[in-house]
Design goal:
Length: 136
């Protein structure tokens, strides 16, 4: 298994430990249901080499909740999501690999009737294959 995927599994489990999270998965599936929320979805967006032995993986960590549950209005949704953002950022620490918080996108409404935010983070891992391994 790849080191990148192993680390994604560690993050998935760590996010699932956050009390406000109902489901934590790698990737965003098409059939998310109201029963899945509040969600965290980890999406690796870019993987690039940073030097001869390290690769950086940019992650989009989506999290959100249904808008229709906003009995106290949209302000309550934002308050809950900003609290969840803080918990996600704290969960990025202490996992045995280097990961850096970059920023949070607060308007990632990709799914109708749901309010989504996305934490952007960069994870660094030792590369299991070097450029010399790719030559014929």
């Amino acid at each position: 298994m790849s080191i990148v995927f192993d680390n994604l599994l560690i993050l998935k489990d760590k996010f699932f430990e956050i009390p406000a999270v109902k489901t934590s998965k790698i990737g965003i599936e098409a059939n998310i249901t109201p029963e899945d929320y509040p969600i965290v979805r980890i999406v690796p967006s870019i993987i690039r080499r940073t030097d001869s032995v390290t690769r950086a993986t940019e992650l989009l960590i989506y999290f959100g909740t249904p808008i229709y549950e906003a009995e106290d209005g949209l302000e309550a949704i934002y308050e809950g999501l900003l609290n969840l953002e803080q918990a996600i950022i704290l969960a990025l620490q202490g996992n045995g690999f280097l990961i850096k918080y970059l920023d949070t996108i607060t308007d990632e409404d990709r799914i109708e009737h749901y309010k989504l935010f996305a934490v952007r983070a960069e994870m660094h891992t030792k590369d299991s294959c070097s450029n010399s391994d790719l030559s014929a």
